[in-house]
Amino acid sequence: MKTKLIGYLSYGYPSIEESIKIADVYAKSGCDVIEISYPTDNAYIDSEYISSRMRLAIEKCNDADAYFNGISKIREENPNVELLLLIYEHSIIELGLNKFIKYCKDNSIEDIILVGTKDDTITNELMKNNLKISCYVTFGMPDNEVEEAKNSNGFVYLQAKPDGKVKEGYDTLDKCIKYLKNVGIKTPIYAGVGISTKEDVNMASKAGADGVFVGSAILKKQHDFKELEAFIKELKSGIE
Asked: Which domains does the chain carry?
């Protein structure tokens, strides 16, 4: 199976309506998966570039039902594209756990990137309801992160490029992916962080990643839909 191209959608920015249009461009241009980030005014884990977009989205609209309805529209218009949802734990608590679970099931969303967790309470409840919770593993693959990934029911979000210490003997992405598979990880391994060009996508694809995330680089093309479409097609051409 070919590596999936995953496009990050800064949902709600500049508006819900515009996000729906952007999602359509993603789908029509070749994104296999759309990563929808549910906005919050306290995106303390994300970069300032991403968190500022989330804040502006919330300032413009803080209506949970409007966001839910908008994602339903994205699902309706793009039935063949997978949707995964990035959401902060505090946002789920504010929304209500049962409401959030029902929303995900109603919109065929199974994969969740859950960030800002305080403990395993919310994670365990989501998993009990058959939602798949991803697990982030840094390039150095410390033992505790690998163990968490082995116990997760969702995909592994693997840092695509080193930014510091690496595990001895595992200095390239392909070696990291093989290591994770050899220690017993059966769920998909998606690579991200630092992916911004066709060459980056090609590197991750050759390394054996099941999917590759493109974040800020794709957001910076959204001022012009034709440019965005061309950029996504270029990224897609890097997949082997």
From this structure: 4-236 (3.20.20.70)
